[in-house]
Amino acid sequence: MNINGEFASINGKLAIINGTPPLKAIVAASEAYPKGWHEGDVGGLSAIETNLAPANIKKTVNIFGKAGTFEQAVSTTELQATVSFPSTSGSVDVWKSKISKTVPAAAMQVQAYLVLRVSAGSTAQMRILYNGVEKAIDTGVGNTPEGLSWNGAGIGSEASLQFQEKANDINTISYGGAMYYQAPA
After folding, report:
1. 74-184 has which CATH code?
2. pTM for the complete prediction?
3. Do 97 and 160 touch, CB atoms closer than 8 A?
4. Alpha-carbon distance 36 to 22, whole Å?
5. What percent of the chain has pLDDT over 90?
6. Eight-state DSSP code of residue 47
């Protein structure tokens, strides 16, 4: 491209420019966008970077006019099957861990549910902890089943998921529960 006789402002003064400006290339493997004259490509940015394609962009995301179509497949894995177990005897009003499982770092979503039933005249509490943080808590009174569930995002590192109980006496307390996580398939 020749720009002989073109006008430009240089340091605030009007000047006539002659010659050919040096062209700068945009390189797909580099994040650099050098200062200067760019010739462009009739195929657009995706002609320069072939990975800029709808299939490589998350669905609902738009990058430089390319609407993403990528949806990550997930699989659900059971950490703990549905179980029932009685309360252990011993100290009352102390949190006792009933089930403790490790959630892998790849987990994107974590789910847990628990059902509590206590003997008539008794009360008990149950809670779900994720990585040591209480996520849900509930109280069961008498023989009426109480349900508790929690659904949350994975934290990107290995973490523990626990069911705990605390009773005001040592009468029979029964629980049932399950734990799941979702990760890339």
Report:
1. 2.60.120.40
2. 0.55
3. no
4. 7
5. 1
6. H
